[in-house]
Amino acid sequence: MRPFLLALLAKEPAHGYELKQALEQIFGSAYPSPNIGQIYVTLGRLEKDGLVRAVDVEQSNRPNKKVYYLTAAGRDALDAWAEEPAEGPRVRDEFFMKLVLAPMTGIADRMTLINRQRRHYIALMRDLNELSERTDPADRVALLLIEGAMLHLQADLDWLDRCQEDLS
Amino acid sequence: MVNTVNLVKIYQSGGVPVPAVRGVDLRVEAGEFVAIMGPSGSGKSTLVHMLGGLDARTSGEIWLDGRRADTLGESAWALLRRQKIGFVFQFFNLIANMTVADNVELPALLAGASPREARERREHLLGALGLTGRADAAPAQLAGGEQQRVALARALANKPSLLLADEPTGNLDSRNTRDVLKLLTDVHRDGQTIILVTHDARVASLADRVVSLLDGQIVDDGAVGTFRRRPKGTAGDVVELRG
Ligand SMILES: Nc1ncnc2c1ncn2[C@@H]1O[C@H](COP(=O)(O)OP(=O)(O)O)[C@@H](O)[C@H]1O
Ligand SMILES: [Mg+2]
């Protein structure tokens, strides 16, 4: 969540609750809404690292609120985050480990593992299909996220075919 | 509805036998939607071609609606297809010198529909697949994905009780795939039997059952399960789904 908060603060200074609302508004249902506690904990860490600073703003008939703003170091950290390519998906996942180790342990043969995994992926795809039907068509961000998950799943399934061809 | 017993197809390629389907026992009930998956060259096209009488079996049996079909001659197969089978070819096979509209209406007319029924059915199908504006075009003027959807519309024109489709979404982008998925869902709900070859997990996930082929044999055959993390998940769960 650190880079998200830095990005929001680069736009304008804000207090914790405003940041929570902004995250909800931008990501819609595409990102699980963080609770306010998580946001304050993260802000505290960013402050300790010198990436944000807080000022107390007096409020009439309410306790002071802390408004956070980005420091120069925070701006540099945000730029570095934005410029760096994101990590690709992992291929050496748990299934791959099972596939490699299965014959040594005698727990299951590879064909059975691959077939079971395929069924699981297709069930996952059905779930994503239903999720995309339920999602508001105006929520572009959420729909793109679902489509991304579907494309990844399709690649996983194609790769299972390759495993089955080569290991049989 | 469809039943095969030890179905075998061996092609001869330059005097060398190429076994494409090696002893398939497949039983599909009326109204069932079965997806056939498997790597390229595993015999999927050969299998559905045999089920539609478009390729002769080497040995084994094919039963359709309780009647032996593998022993039928070409004209009897043609009649059977006209009456109750819709076939979507992997490479479309549209009639080049007819418009899109005529391509789709023809099977309905051949099956005995009135011109008006055929036209209404065509308008409905082209509409559902986002092709209304292409009705007067010739197949060669269409992009691959459009031709593919026309091929699906044509296969459904005579309301076949059995739809056989070979990779019907292979050339579609995700928006067009969505139209096809929706139409297939409707067809399935109407009780038509569907046997469909696909690489696309979205299409397969609509099926009641997935059959996996490898080297001409069935290596897995099972109902599509349901997976649920939470009853009322949102897109936010996708983040979690993908770790
Ligand atoms: N007409 C043909 N003549 C010779 N071999 C063929 C012919 N059609 C398909 N084959 C061979 O039969 C096998 C199965 O092909 P096919 O049914 O097209 O597989 P899939 O549709 O799963 O990719 C492949 O080895 C393919 O090369
Ligand atoms: Mg094929």
Automatic annotation (TrEMBL), chain A:
Q: Which Pfam families match?
A: PadR, Vir_act_alpha_C
Official protein name in the record: PadR family transcriptional regulator
Show the SUPFAM superfamilies listed in the entry.
Winged helix' DNA-binding domain
Boundaries of each Transcription regulator PadR N-terminal domain copy? Answer: 5-79
Q: Where is the Transcription regulator PadR C-terminal domain?
A: 91-167
Q: What InterPro entries does UniProt report for this protein, alphabetically? A: Tscrpt_reg_PadR_C (IPR018309), Tscrpt_reg_PadR_N (IPR005149), WH-like_DNA-bd_sf (IPR036388), WH_DNA-bd_sf (IPR036390)
